[in-house]
Amino acid sequence: MGMFILRRTGVMLLTAICLTFIVFLMTNLYPNLEKLAKNEGNFRMSDAEVASFLGNRGYTQGKLQNYGEWLGVLPGYVIEGIDGKTRGRCSNHGAIVENTGKYCGVIQGNWGFSSRFKEPVSKIVAKRLALTGKLMFWVLAVMIPSALIIGIMAGMREGSRLDRALSTGAIVTTATPEYVSGVIFIAVFTSSAVGLKWFKGSATSAMDHATLENFLLPVLTIALYGMGYIARMTRASMAEVMTAQYIRTARLKGVSFANIVLKHALRNALIAPFTVIMLQIPWLLNGVVIVEVLFNFKGFGWVLVQAASNNDIDLLLAVSVVSVVVVLLTQLISDIGYVFLNPRIRIT
Questions:
Q1: What DSSP string describes 185-215?
Q2: Which residues, in sequence order, are CB contacts of 348 under 8 Å at separation 6+?
Q3: Is the full-model pTM beyond 0.85?
Q4: 108 assigned to some structural domain
Q5: Is residue 42 situated within a structural domain?
Q6: The domain spanning residue 332 has which CATH number?
Q7: Total domain count for the chain?
Q8: Which domain holds residue 272?
Q9: Is residue 112 part of a domain?
Q10: Over the stretch 169-202, which tens digit does the pLDDT of each residue have?
Protein backbone atom coordinates (compact mmCIF):
# COMPACT_ATOMS: atom_id res chain seq x y z
CA MET A 1 0.00 0.00 0.00
CA GLY A 2 2.82 2.38 0.88
CA MET A 3 4.59 1.88 -2.46
CA PHE A 4 1.30 2.25 -4.30
CA ILE A 5 0.59 5.59 -2.62
CA LEU A 6 4.17 6.70 -3.29
CA ARG A 7 3.92 5.82 -7.00
CA ARG A 8 0.55 7.48 -7.34
CA THR A 9 1.86 10.58 -5.60
CA GLY A 10 4.68 10.78 -8.12
CA VAL A 11 2.24 10.43 -11.01
CA MET A 12 0.02 13.07 -9.39
CA LEU A 13 2.90 15.53 -9.14
CA LEU A 14 3.86 14.98 -12.77
CA THR A 15 0.24 15.38 -13.86
CA ALA A 16 -0.15 18.53 -11.76
CA ILE A 17 2.96 20.06 -13.32
CA CYS A 18 1.75 19.30 -16.85
CA LEU A 19 -1.76 20.61 -16.24
CA THR A 20 -0.64 23.76 -14.46
CA PHE A 21 1.86 24.46 -17.25
CA ILE A 22 -0.91 24.21 -19.82
CA VAL A 23 -3.14 26.53 -17.77
CA PHE A 24 -0.21 28.91 -17.31
CA LEU A 25 0.37 29.07 -21.07
CA MET A 26 -3.32 29.65 -21.77
CA THR A 27 -3.72 32.42 -19.20
CA ASN A 28 -0.47 34.12 -20.24
CA LEU A 29 -1.29 34.46 -23.92
CA TYR A 30 -0.46 37.89 -25.27
CA PRO A 31 -4.09 39.09 -25.62
CA ASN A 32 -4.63 38.38 -21.92
CA LEU A 33 -1.40 40.13 -20.99
CA GLU A 34 -2.31 43.10 -23.18
CA LYS A 35 -5.69 43.36 -21.47
CA LEU A 36 -3.98 43.13 -18.07
CA ALA A 37 -1.60 45.96 -18.99
CA LYS A 38 -4.43 48.20 -20.12
CA ASN A 39 -6.50 47.41 -17.03
CA GLU A 40 -3.58 48.24 -14.77
CA GLY A 41 -2.41 51.21 -16.81
CA ASN A 42 -4.52 52.97 -19.41
CA PHE A 43 -6.96 51.62 -21.98
CA ARG A 44 -5.45 54.05 -24.50
CA MET A 45 -1.95 52.65 -24.14
CA SER A 46 -0.07 52.17 -27.40
CA ASP A 47 1.52 48.87 -28.40
CA ALA A 48 4.93 50.19 -27.38
CA GLU A 49 3.62 51.24 -23.97
CA VAL A 50 2.01 47.82 -23.49
CA ALA A 51 5.28 46.09 -24.38
CA SER A 52 7.17 48.36 -21.96
CA PHE A 53 4.65 47.65 -19.19
CA LEU A 54 4.94 43.90 -19.67
CA GLY A 55 8.71 44.01 -19.99
CA ASN A 56 9.09 45.95 -16.74
CA ARG A 57 7.11 43.25 -14.94
CA GLY A 58 8.90 40.20 -16.30
CA TYR A 59 6.19 38.96 -18.67
CA THR A 60 8.47 38.97 -21.73
CA GLN A 61 11.23 36.72 -20.35
CA GLY A 62 9.90 33.55 -21.93
CA LYS A 63 7.14 31.18 -20.89
CA LEU A 64 9.38 28.54 -19.32
CA GLN A 65 11.22 31.21 -17.33
CA ASN A 66 7.95 32.79 -16.20
CA TYR A 67 6.49 29.40 -15.26
CA GLY A 68 9.59 28.46 -13.28
CA GLU A 69 9.44 31.75 -11.37
CA TRP A 70 5.70 31.37 -10.73
CA LEU A 71 6.19 27.79 -9.57
CA GLY A 72 9.13 28.76 -7.37
CA VAL A 73 11.87 26.60 -8.89
CA LEU A 74 13.64 29.59 -10.45
CA PRO A 75 14.67 32.85 -8.77
CA GLY A 76 12.20 35.69 -9.15
CA TYR A 77 13.02 38.38 -11.70
CA VAL A 78 14.52 41.75 -10.82
CA ILE A 79 14.14 44.34 -13.60
CA GLU A 80 15.02 48.01 -13.67
CA GLY A 81 12.37 49.70 -15.77
CA ILE A 82 12.68 52.72 -18.00
CA ASP A 83 10.78 54.69 -15.37
CA GLY A 84 13.74 54.29 -13.01
CA LYS A 85 12.00 51.84 -10.67
CA THR A 86 13.44 48.44 -9.89
CA ARG A 87 10.73 45.81 -9.77
CA GLY A 88 11.05 42.25 -8.58
CA ARG A 89 8.68 39.32 -8.29
CA CYS A 90 9.70 38.88 -4.66
CA SER A 91 9.45 42.57 -3.76
CA ASN A 92 5.77 42.61 -2.82
CA HIS A 93 5.10 45.07 -5.65
CA GLY A 94 7.76 47.49 -4.49
CA ALA A 95 11.21 48.57 -5.68
CA ILE A 96 13.47 46.32 -3.62
CA VAL A 97 16.82 45.35 -5.10
CA GLU A 98 17.89 43.11 -2.19
CA ASN A 99 15.57 40.33 -3.33
CA THR A 100 17.86 39.35 -6.21
CA GLY A 101 18.14 35.57 -6.46
CA LYS A 102 15.27 34.88 -4.09
CA TYR A 103 12.76 32.10 -4.79
CA CYS A 104 9.18 33.25 -4.28
CA GLY A 105 6.70 31.13 -6.19
CA VAL A 106 3.80 28.84 -5.40
CA ILE A 107 6.07 26.35 -3.65
CA GLN A 108 7.19 29.09 -1.25
CA GLY A 109 3.58 30.17 -0.65
CA ASN A 110 3.58 33.24 -2.90
CA TRP A 111 0.50 32.90 -5.13
CA GLY A 112 0.73 36.42 -6.50
CA PHE A 113 -1.41 39.51 -6.12
CA SER A 114 -4.98 39.91 -7.33
CA SER A 115 -5.50 42.76 -9.78
CA ARG A 116 -9.25 42.60 -9.14
CA PHE A 117 -9.40 42.48 -5.33
CA LYS A 118 -6.07 44.24 -4.64
CA GLU A 119 -4.92 41.72 -2.04
CA PRO A 120 -2.78 38.55 -1.94
CA VAL A 121 -4.24 35.68 -3.92
CA SER A 122 -3.55 33.16 -1.15
CA LYS A 123 -5.77 35.12 1.24
CA ILE A 124 -8.62 35.28 -1.27
CA VAL A 125 -8.45 31.59 -2.17
CA ALA A 126 -8.31 30.48 1.47
CA LYS A 127 -11.34 32.57 2.40
CA ARG A 128 -13.50 31.61 -0.57
CA LEU A 129 -12.45 27.96 -0.46
CA ALA A 130 -13.55 27.77 3.18
CA LEU A 131 -16.97 29.15 2.24
CA THR A 132 -17.42 26.65 -0.58
CA GLY A 133 -16.16 23.92 1.77
CA LYS A 134 -19.01 24.73 4.13
CA LEU A 135 -21.48 24.56 1.25
CA MET A 136 -19.98 21.28 0.02
CA PHE A 137 -20.15 19.72 3.48
CA TRP A 138 -23.88 20.28 3.82
CA VAL A 139 -24.56 19.28 0.22
CA LEU A 140 -22.74 15.97 0.72
CA ALA A 141 -24.46 15.46 4.09
CA VAL A 142 -27.84 15.75 2.36
CA MET A 143 -27.03 14.20 -1.00
CA ILE A 144 -25.10 11.03 -0.16
CA PRO A 145 -27.36 9.43 2.50
CA SER A 146 -30.52 10.33 0.57
CA ALA A 147 -29.17 8.98 -2.72
CA LEU A 148 -27.91 5.74 -1.15
CA ILE A 149 -31.21 5.11 0.62
CA ILE A 150 -33.19 5.73 -2.57
CA GLY A 151 -30.86 3.57 -4.65
CA ILE A 152 -30.80 0.70 -2.16
CA MET A 153 -34.59 0.68 -1.75
CA ALA A 154 -35.08 0.68 -5.52
CA GLY A 155 -32.43 -1.98 -6.11
CA MET A 156 -33.83 -4.35 -3.48
CA ARG A 157 -37.25 -4.31 -5.17
CA GLU A 158 -36.24 -4.27 -8.81
CA GLY A 159 -39.23 -3.93 -11.13
CA SER A 160 -41.69 -3.05 -8.39
CA ARG A 161 -43.83 0.08 -8.21
CA LEU A 162 -41.47 1.48 -5.58
CA ASP A 163 -38.52 0.94 -7.91
CA ARG A 164 -40.26 2.65 -10.83
CA ALA A 165 -41.36 5.59 -8.70
CA LEU A 166 -37.93 6.15 -7.14
CA SER A 167 -36.12 5.69 -10.45
CA THR A 168 -38.42 8.18 -12.18
CA GLY A 169 -37.80 10.72 -9.44
CA ALA A 170 -34.04 10.19 -9.71
CA ILE A 171 -34.12 10.71 -13.48
CA VAL A 172 -36.16 13.90 -13.12
CA THR A 173 -33.73 15.43 -10.59
CA THR A 174 -30.71 14.54 -12.70
CA ALA A 175 -32.31 15.90 -15.88
CA THR A 176 -33.11 19.23 -14.21
CA PRO A 177 -30.14 21.66 -14.32
CA GLU A 178 -29.25 23.62 -11.20
CA TYR A 179 -30.21 26.95 -12.73
CA VAL A 180 -33.71 25.61 -13.44
CA SER A 181 -34.34 24.07 -10.02
CA GLY A 182 -32.74 27.08 -8.32
CA VAL A 183 -35.00 29.53 -10.13
CA ILE A 184 -38.03 27.35 -9.33
CA PHE A 185 -37.10 27.24 -5.64
CA ILE A 186 -36.63 31.00 -5.54
CA ALA A 187 -39.92 31.62 -7.36
CA VAL A 188 -41.92 29.24 -5.17
CA PHE A 189 -40.39 29.63 -1.72
CA THR A 190 -39.13 33.23 -1.69
CA SER A 191 -41.28 35.20 -4.12
CA SER A 192 -44.17 37.35 -2.93
CA ALA A 193 -46.10 36.33 -6.07
CA VAL A 194 -46.62 32.81 -4.75
CA GLY A 195 -46.74 33.83 -1.14
CA LEU A 196 -44.48 31.14 0.35
CA LYS A 197 -41.83 33.37 1.90
CA TRP A 198 -40.29 30.51 3.84
CA PHE A 199 -36.68 31.06 2.79
CA LYS A 200 -34.38 33.80 1.56
CA GLY A 201 -33.52 34.04 -2.11
CA SER A 202 -29.99 35.17 -1.26
CA ALA A 203 -27.34 33.20 0.62
CA THR A 204 -25.03 36.16 1.22
CA SER A 205 -25.83 36.23 4.94
CA ALA A 206 -25.01 32.51 5.11
CA MET A 207 -21.37 33.38 4.52
CA ASP A 208 -21.18 34.64 8.09
CA HIS A 209 -23.98 32.70 9.75
CA ALA A 210 -25.72 29.86 7.94
CA THR A 211 -29.30 29.12 8.96
CA LEU A 212 -32.12 27.01 7.59
CA GLU A 213 -33.68 30.14 6.13
CA ASN A 214 -30.72 31.41 4.14
CA PHE A 215 -28.82 28.22 3.34
CA LEU A 216 -31.32 25.43 2.62
CA LEU A 217 -32.26 26.43 -0.93
CA PRO A 218 -28.70 26.49 -2.38
CA VAL A 219 -27.92 23.21 -0.61
CA LEU A 220 -31.05 21.53 -2.00
CA THR A 221 -30.45 22.95 -5.48
CA ILE A 222 -27.02 21.31 -5.70
CA ALA A 223 -27.91 18.15 -3.78
CA LEU A 224 -30.94 17.28 -5.92
CA TYR A 225 -28.93 17.40 -9.13
CA GLY A 226 -26.24 14.99 -7.90
CA MET A 227 -28.62 12.85 -5.86
CA GLY A 228 -30.38 11.31 -8.84
CA TYR A 229 -27.15 10.22 -10.52
CA ILE A 230 -25.81 8.54 -7.39
CA ALA A 231 -29.19 6.92 -6.71
CA ARG A 232 -29.39 5.48 -10.22
CA MET A 233 -25.87 4.08 -9.98
CA THR A 234 -26.60 2.59 -6.54
CA ARG A 235 -29.86 1.09 -7.77
CA ALA A 236 -28.18 -0.61 -10.76
CA SER A 237 -25.35 -1.94 -8.59
CA MET A 238 -27.70 -3.15 -5.86
CA ALA A 239 -30.00 -4.88 -8.36
CA GLU A 240 -27.02 -6.73 -9.88
CA VAL A 241 -25.69 -7.83 -6.49
CA MET A 242 -29.09 -9.06 -5.31
CA THR A 243 -29.18 -11.57 -8.19
CA ALA A 244 -25.70 -12.95 -7.42
CA GLN A 245 -25.26 -16.62 -6.55
CA TYR A 246 -23.99 -16.02 -3.00
CA ILE A 247 -27.11 -13.96 -2.23
CA ARG A 248 -29.32 -16.83 -3.37
CA THR A 249 -27.30 -19.23 -1.24
CA ALA A 250 -27.75 -17.00 1.79
CA ARG A 251 -31.49 -16.94 1.20
CA LEU A 252 -31.64 -20.72 0.93
CA LYS A 253 -29.76 -20.99 4.23
CA GLY A 254 -32.48 -18.97 5.90
CA VAL A 255 -30.52 -15.76 6.48
CA SER A 256 -32.88 -12.87 7.14
CA PHE A 257 -33.44 -10.37 4.38
CA ALA A 258 -32.05 -7.52 6.50
CA ASN A 259 -28.80 -9.41 7.17
CA ILE A 260 -28.46 -10.31 3.49
CA VAL A 261 -28.73 -6.67 2.51
CA LEU A 262 -26.56 -5.18 5.26
CA LYS A 263 -23.86 -7.85 5.64
CA HIS A 264 -23.57 -9.37 2.17
CA ALA A 265 -25.02 -7.17 -0.57
CA LEU A 266 -24.41 -3.61 0.57
CA ARG A 267 -20.61 -3.66 0.66
CA ASN A 268 -20.27 -5.00 -2.87
CA ALA A 269 -23.04 -2.73 -4.13
CA LEU A 270 -21.22 0.37 -2.88
CA ILE A 271 -18.09 -0.14 -5.02
CA ALA A 272 -19.51 1.56 -8.13
CA PRO A 273 -21.38 4.35 -6.28
CA PHE A 274 -18.22 5.10 -4.30
CA THR A 275 -16.51 6.21 -7.51
CA VAL A 276 -19.44 8.43 -8.43
CA ILE A 277 -19.50 9.95 -4.95
CA MET A 278 -15.79 10.78 -5.10
CA LEU A 279 -16.30 12.41 -8.50
CA GLN A 280 -18.88 14.71 -6.97
CA ILE A 281 -16.21 16.51 -4.92
CA PRO A 282 -14.35 18.08 -7.89
CA TRP A 283 -17.71 18.80 -9.49
CA LEU A 284 -18.94 20.52 -6.36
CA LEU A 285 -15.78 22.61 -6.15
CA ASN A 286 -16.05 24.04 -9.66
CA GLY A 287 -19.59 23.14 -10.68
CA VAL A 288 -21.33 25.29 -8.09
CA VAL A 289 -20.57 28.45 -10.08
CA ILE A 290 -24.16 28.84 -11.25
CA VAL A 291 -25.65 28.23 -7.82
CA GLU A 292 -23.21 30.56 -6.06
CA VAL A 293 -23.94 33.33 -8.55
CA LEU A 294 -27.68 32.64 -8.48
CA PHE A 295 -27.88 32.81 -4.68
CA ASN A 296 -25.09 35.41 -4.38
CA PHE A 297 -22.93 33.12 -2.28
CA LYS A 298 -19.38 34.38 -2.78
CA GLY A 299 -17.42 31.17 -2.60
CA PHE A 300 -14.84 29.44 -4.77
CA GLY A 301 -17.04 29.29 -7.86
CA TRP A 302 -17.86 32.98 -7.55
CA VAL A 303 -14.15 33.78 -7.38
CA LEU A 304 -13.57 31.72 -10.52
CA VAL A 305 -16.13 33.85 -12.38
CA GLN A 306 -14.58 37.06 -11.06
CA ALA A 307 -11.06 35.98 -12.02
CA ALA A 308 -12.07 34.95 -15.54
CA SER A 309 -14.27 37.99 -16.26
CA ASN A 310 -11.68 40.47 -14.94
CA ASN A 311 -8.63 38.78 -16.48
CA ASP A 312 -7.10 38.34 -13.03
CA ILE A 313 -4.26 36.06 -14.12
CA ASP A 314 -2.70 35.27 -10.73
CA LEU A 315 -6.08 34.52 -9.18
CA LEU A 316 -7.16 32.41 -12.13
CA LEU A 317 -3.95 30.39 -11.92
CA ALA A 318 -4.43 29.81 -8.18
CA VAL A 319 -8.01 28.64 -8.70
CA SER A 320 -6.81 26.25 -11.41
CA VAL A 321 -4.06 24.83 -9.20
CA VAL A 322 -6.47 24.18 -6.34
CA SER A 323 -8.91 22.51 -8.72
CA VAL A 324 -6.20 20.25 -10.16
CA VAL A 325 -4.99 19.24 -6.69
CA VAL A 326 -8.52 18.43 -5.52
CA VAL A 327 -9.21 16.27 -8.58
CA LEU A 328 -5.96 14.32 -8.18
CA LEU A 329 -6.46 13.81 -4.43
CA THR A 330 -10.01 12.52 -4.89
CA GLN A 331 -8.76 10.04 -7.50
CA LEU A 332 -6.13 8.78 -5.05
CA ILE A 333 -8.69 8.43 -2.26
CA SER A 334 -11.01 6.63 -4.66
CA ASP A 335 -8.31 4.09 -5.57
CA ILE A 336 -7.48 3.46 -1.91
CA GLY A 337 -11.17 3.06 -1.10
CA TYR A 338 -11.47 0.27 -3.68
CA VAL A 339 -9.12 -1.87 -1.63
CA PHE A 340 -11.24 -1.66 1.49
CA LEU A 341 -14.55 -2.13 -0.31
CA ASN A 342 -13.40 -5.02 -2.50
CA PRO A 343 -11.01 -7.53 -0.85
CA ARG A 344 -10.38 -9.17 -4.25
CA ILE A 345 -8.36 -6.12 -5.34
CA ARG A 346 -4.66 -6.51 -4.57
CA ILE A 347 -2.10 -3.73 -4.84
CA THR A 348 1.47 -4.68 -5.65
A1: HHHHHT-TTT----S-S--GGGGTS--HHHH
A2: 4
A3: no
A4: no
A5: yes
A6: 1.10.3720.10
A7: 2
A8: 121-341
A9: no
A10: 888 888 888 888 888 888 888 876 666 677 887 8
